[in-house]
Amino acid sequence: MLESKKEIPSGMQIKVPGDKSVSHRSVLFSSLAKGKSKITGFLEAEDPRNTMKSFSQLGVEFKITSPGEYLVNSPGKHNLKSPNSELDFGNGGTGIRLSAGLLTGLPNFHAVLTGDESLKKRPMKRIIDPLRSMGGDIIALGEDGRAPLEIRGKQLRPFQYKSKLASAQVKSCILLAGISSDVEVDYEESELSRDHTENMIRFLGGKIEKKEHFRFVIKPPYEFEGTEFKVPGDISSAAFFIVLALLSKKGELLIQNIGLNPARVGILTVLKDMGGKIEEENIREECGEKIGDLRIHPSGLKRIDIKPELIPSIIDEIPILTIAGLFSENGFKISHAEDLRAKESDRIHSMVTNLKSMGVKVEESQDGYEFEEVDAIHPALIQSFLDHRIAMSFQILSALTGLDLRIDDDSWIDTSFPDFKNILRSFG
Prior knowledge:
There is one protein chain. The chain is of the alpha/beta class. The protein has two domains: 12-17 and 233-425, UDP-n-acetylglucosamine1-carboxyvinyl-transferase, Chain (Alpha-beta prism); 20-221, UDP-n-acetylglucosamine1-carboxyvinyl-transferase, Chain (Alpha-beta prism). It has helices at 20-32, 46-56, 93-104, 125-133, 168-181, 196-203, 235-247, 266-273, 311-314, 318-326, 347-357, 388-401, 420-425; strands at residues 12-15, 35-40, 61-66, 69-74, 87-88, 109-114, 137-140, 149-153, 159-162, 185-188, 208-210, 215-218, 228-230, 253-259, 277-286, 289-297, 332-334, 362-365, 368-371, 380-382, 405-407. The strands form six sheets. A four-stranded mixed β-sheet has the order 1-14-16-15. Strands 3-4-2-13 form a four-stranded mixed β-sheet, covered by helices on one side. It has a four-stranded mixed β-sheet with strand order 5-6-8-7, covered by helices on one side. A hairpin with a 2-residue loop joins strand 3 and strand 4 (69-74). The longest helix has 14 residues, at 168-181. The model has no long low-confidence stretch (mean pLDDT 95).
């Protein structure tokens, strides 16, 4: 079994940047809310900053007072104006998909939403089809239903939708469209996906009526007022250092102020089931989100069968979870995760390609991959595939093994975690 060479100082403490999902939503909801708001803990990374930049083109004022802290002044959803140029969301899939919903529901509004070459390869049909069913006027200017997206906002109609995907982006897109047009939305999904949007609706005073299974209804009015949005630390960013600490030879790590939303802690469930010792401390609630500190101890890990219903809650953490699998007794398997192929890269292909380059015997399937217990790996050139989570995962592996795993391009890390390399260096 692969062994770690890493040791971390006992009692080490770190903080990770603000949650990317909540940061995007803090921009969207402070823009919907009329008047003044405050955002603290905002993730100063390219993706959420591009969302903020886009909404500043619509007449919303964002004034930075210190890193991660902004004062917001919005004219309210009924007074957002059409931009004079394209809205560029860079690499932000969350930014463009959620914003598309919000803007499609604004009558007499026109905009073109675009992004970088990676974003233009990602599927948009999953949001275009339901938005059109609501009466929305949205078309894909790219090939095969891909960005850029042209939107001519109009009054939408009440909508009932049963999603085939357990996707927080699809769900949030439709909810925001309903909020923009002040109509009722009845939404159902196959499994619980991230519910940050629902939490923020409740926090702002909106009503959500739960139905059977994973179905709920939101109803107007949606007259939100400005308030303070507190963004917790991102568990998806923390996951890299959780795995690092679990696999280190000795020491312990405390990660402070982490969002522990029940729809996001699948990574903790899986790692604990694998044998990881992770303790939750100082639990509290802010802005509708559960928050706490995580204490991580070095642990021996073993292979488990990951339940299909957990996949939506760990979809972004699968690359770093795979690194944990390299050090696990009897190896690692992920399945029921075909949505990995529609991320910043085709993450199934990306992970399999890089694992093979290091000498790991891995079998790829349409919805995942599998490898037996790994005894050794060798240095290799790692391909990031323009994907921040691929780059960060293999940098953690390099730190654990001491091997020279060179990343072809790690600049993509800045899209979600600009301080990642500095924090990693602090471990020695």
